[in-house]
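Backbone shapes recur. Consider a single case.
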Amino acid sequence: MLFSFTRIFAALTAAVLFLPSLASGADAEHGEILFDTCVGCHGSEGYDNVYPTYKVPRLQGQWPEYIVVALQGYTDGSRNHPTMTAQASSFSMEDMQDIAAYISTVGELANGDVVGTAPESAATCVACHGANGQSMAFAFPHLAGQHQSYMVQALKDYRSGARTNPVMAPNALNLTDADIEAISEFYAQQEGLQTYSD
């Protein structure tokens, strides 16, 4: 257990130290123009990804720095999604920063009391993502209010290795399908992220 904790702590430290902060000169107006190609999926509450089927993630209220990290993941292969890989590959680092800067202007993370009781399987999640899914550091995404089906798919991808991350991969490895459903259901019912609307 100590060895596992030491490995996780080292990975968390590395994540915090090496994640890029949002550039102070990021251009939100330019980001709004670029984000126009994203609205069709991320601006529709009922929009589903297919094969596999899950809701596209909510972005409004998410850490802008984490949005940059996610976009980079599609270009470096740590995340795999044909549409997002093609989309992200068309953006420069400045473009990604501008998009994230724009998203940060459209709405804040909603805040509310914790709803329900976190499942035991979520005990490890709390350290990074907070008791109610609202993380305290941009290295770790907010989960509160995220679509349940999206989180289920993300956790299964971390577990299978389809999505790679030095922190998430070992944490997802021993989660059962029931664990994944329970964790995702808990965080989805919290107040937090919202579907983009301008």
User: Anything to note?
Assistant: Confidence is low (pLDDT under 50) at residues 1-18. The CA atoms of residues 6 and 14 lie 12 Å apart. Residues 26-188 form a domain with the Cytochrome Bc1 Complex; Chain D, domain 2 fold (CATH 1.10.760.10). The first helix runs from residue 2 to 18.
